[in-house]
UniProtKB/TrEMBL annotation:
Species: Thalassovita autumnalis
Keywords: FAD, Flavoprotein, Oxidoreductase
Top enzyme class: oxidoreductase
Gene3D superfamilies from the UniProt entry: 3.30.465.10, CO dehydrogenase flavoprotein, C-terminal domain, Uridine Diphospho-n-acetylenolpyruvylglucosamine Reductase, domain 2
Limits of the FAD-binding PCMH-type domain: 1-166
Alphabetized PROSITE patterns for the sequence: FAD_PCMH (PS51387)
The protein, known as: Carbon monoxide dehydrogenase medium chain
Transferase found in the keyword field: no
Molecular function, one GO term: FAD binding
Database matches in Pfam families: FAD_binding_5 (PF00941)
EC assignment: 1.2.99.2
InterPro entries from the UniProt entry: CO_DH_flav_C (IPR005107), CO_DH_flav_C_dom_sf (IPR036683), Diverse_Substr_Oxidored (IPR051312), FAD-bd_PCMH (IPR016166), FAD-bd_PCMH-like_sf (IPR036318), FAD-bd_PCMH_sub1 (IPR016167), FAD-bd_PCMH_sub2 (IPR016169), Mopterin_DH_FAD-bd (IPR002346)
Length: 260
């Protein structure tokens, strides 16, 4: 590690001001940032911690919407997110207890790891990402692997999840990290079904439009039987080929529909 300044503001306004300094980075749970700093892949001169801002924490239900503060830990979402059971179950399956008690929703989304679980929930739910400056629809937020629509110095403050009629998240996890080798989140709403896939595409989280159309007409595992997933653009690594991941997408979608 190396020397750097550390600041823990008590408000979003103070955090945004601190982030205007050159080479300053926001720190939430730190589950990705701190390891990358240890490896010298990131070298900010200042860390601006968001964990002291109470306004960024907590889970609350407003009608048919579940609002989750950006600095809310995975463990808290798992414990308090029962109004959206599939989201709570997803949070409870992230990493291990140490990760769940430090990692945060906002940190995961801002990092946008291609194998992270939360992006699939946000995309499948058609959620709204709220920042200090604006509101961003889920379909406009994710911008490729490790990339988002966030501007420099912009902070996620909360995420609003419309609560679906039925939903489930199923993942085939890498056993050491518990990241998703492939994960599928299916959410059924009155106006249709949304299906989001994580861990499979070279571009990061994505929607499976063909499955959405089929499941909107017939919400059953059998509705997916006649569909195929193209392997083009899917990840190839030591854990699996693109064809392997293509098959997992279909298998996990059927499991998610059955569980929902």
């Amino acid at each position: 590690m190396y020397n750097f300044d550390f600041e823990q503001p008590g408000s979003v306004e103070d955090a945004v001001a601190a982030l205007k300094e050159e080479d300053a980075l926001a720190l939430s749970g730190g589950q990705t940032l701190i390891p990358s700093m240890k490896q010298r892949l990131n070298a900010p001169s200042k860390l601006v911690s968001l964990t002291g801002i109470e306004a960024l924490k907590g889970v609350c239900q407003n009608g048919d919407t579940l609002s989750v503060g950006a600095a809310t830990t995975h463990a808290t979402v798992a414990a308090d997110g029962g109004a959206y059971a599939a989201l709570a179950a997803l949070a409870g399956g992230i990493g291990d207890p140490a990760v769940r008690n430090r990692g945060t929703l906002g940190g995961s989304l801002a990092n946008n790891d291609p194998a992270a679980c939360y992006p699939s929930a946000v995309l499948a739910s058609g959620a709204t990402v709220v920042t200090n400056a604006r509101e961003i629809a889920a379909d406009d937020f994710f911008d490729g692997m490790f990339a988002t629509a966030l501007d420099e110095g912009e902070i996620i403050t909360s995420v609003n999840f419309p609560i679906p009629e039925k939903a489930s998240y199923q993942k085939f996890e890498q056993p050491a990290s518990r990241f998703a080798l492939t994960g599928v989140f299916v959410a059924k709403y009155a106006d249709g079904v949304r299906v989001a896939v994580t861990g499979a595409s070279e571009e990061g989280v994505m929607r499976w439009a063909e499955a959405e159309a089929a499941l909107s007409a017939d919400f059953s595992p059998e509705a997916v039987d006649g569909l195929t997933v193209a392997a083009d653009g899917l990840i190839s690594d030591l854990h699996g080929t693109p064809e392997y991941r293509a098959n997992l997408i279909k298998v996990l979608t059927k499991r998610a529909v059955a569980a929902a």
